[in-house]
Design brief:
About 80% of the residues lie in helices and about 0% in strands. By secondary structure, the chain is mostly helical. It has one domain. Helix 6 runs antiparallel to helix 7, helix 6 crosses helix 8 and helix 7 runs antiparallel to helix 8. The longest helix has 27 residues. It is globular and about 45 Å long. This is CAAX protease family protein. Keywords: Hydrolase, Membrane, Protease, Transmembrane, Transmembrane helix. It comes from Domibacillus epiphyticus. GO terms for molecular function: endopeptidase activity.
Amino acid sequence: MALIKDWRLIAGIAAAHILLFVTFSDQDIFWYIYTAANLFFISMSIISEPIDDQQKTNSFMLYGVISGAILYALFAAGFWLLSIMPLSASSHVSTIYKLFSPQFIWHYIVLVLIFIPGEELFWRGFIQKRLGKYMNEWAAVFIASSLYASVFVYSGQWIWIAAAFFAGLFWGVLYLWKKSIPMLIISHLIFDLLLIVFLPFG
């Protein structure tokens, strides 16, 4: 099977799990190791696949801003629904904010310049795109989203895993539709700024 022989794809997924395992092994090194992980993601993606950018600047900026805001609104609605159910979602979200929110200026810088581009280039621009060569593109979206979520199992927070899966599906479908990594980066940026900086939950 051609998929099994794609050593870049297999090595990339394996490396992502190793790097995220180390990233979440100690809260004190999270920002350092995840920065290194995303630098690896960027490098792996650039040497493996051309960066798709099939939208004009005005178009990808507009779609990026709107889609990022829509995803935040969907997450806000989901958080509200979970908060009225016996799932202790609020406490899990509060724990994530407490342990992993940016604390220093350099945290915000790497979040914007490294984390967000790294995740989109790797999980959508490399993993999903590569999977799409071996299977139906909708199946590739689902599997890439599952793989994206799977590396967050090391966080120990089920809600982070679920959030990564649903965000991965959203951005995966958006990528399938518009074929624009810059648009996904803008969407991810708007979402993260709302979620982490301006309008955090809880």
